[in-house]
From TrEMBL:
The lineage of its organism: Eukaryota, Metazoa, Chordata, Craniata, Vertebrata. InterPro entries: Endo/exonu/phosph_ase_sf, Swc5/CFDP1/2. This is Endonuclease/exonuclease/phosphatase domain-containing protein.
């Protein structure tokens, strides 16, 4: 992080574990953003490991102040596909192909927290 951005920090960055970290920055006088960096387990990882990861991510999202802008970024080892009708408001009509198991997990958490994937743009 550049030194001139440090003054924008609202809190000390938090490393949750080796897969998740958060950073809260001030956007304007009355607006904050929470940035969540994530590295999801691979498609071949044990189901227990995936469940733990997504439960931890869900907890972070649930604890984020509702008025914050949320930026969730990272490597989710996922394909979200293009089933716009099944995931309206979460993926856009630009998505292609089929989703995989990790994509379904990602879409489920995005839908639960009113987040969109980049395919909506």
């Amino acid at each position: 992080m550049k030194n001139d951005l440090v003054k924008l920090l609202s809190e000390v960055p938090t490393g949750i574990n080796e897969r998740l970290s958060t950073l809260r920055i001030k956007l304007t006088k009355n607006q904050q953003a929470t940035i969540i960096s994530a590295y999801a387990p691979t498609l071949d990882a044990d189901e227990d490991i995936k469940e733990i990861f997504y439960c931890q991510l869900d907890a972070i999202l649930s604890e984020t102040p509702k008025e914050d802008k949320i930026i969730l970024l990272g490597d989710f080892n996922a394909r979200v596909g293009g089933d716009f009708d099944l995931w309206p408001g979460t993926i856009g009509k630009e998505g292609v192909g089929n989703s995989n198991q990790n994509g379904i997990l990602l879409l489920t958490i995005c839908a639960a927290h009113n987040l969109i994937t980049k395919t909506l743009f």
